[in-house]
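ok so for the tutorial part 2 we go from a plain amino acid sequence to predicted structure tokens. step 1 is just haveing the sequence, like this:
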Amino acid sequence: MRKRVRLLRKRGSPPKRRGAASLDYVLVLCVVLPMVAFMMTAGREIMWLTYEMLSTLITWPFM
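step 2 — the prediction. this is what the tokens look like for a chain of 63 residues:
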């Protein structure tokens, strides 16, 4: 019985993930930051187009 408990404890421990933090940094630097830079430049136009689309959808039945 005690051997079984020891085996379960050994199997239940989470695996060590070395290098996961490095992958997070790469994800932030290579994916998120370029998306933020794009949104900063295109954000005003996107907001204006969204406003026009919403205005059209709201006023369309009354025209």
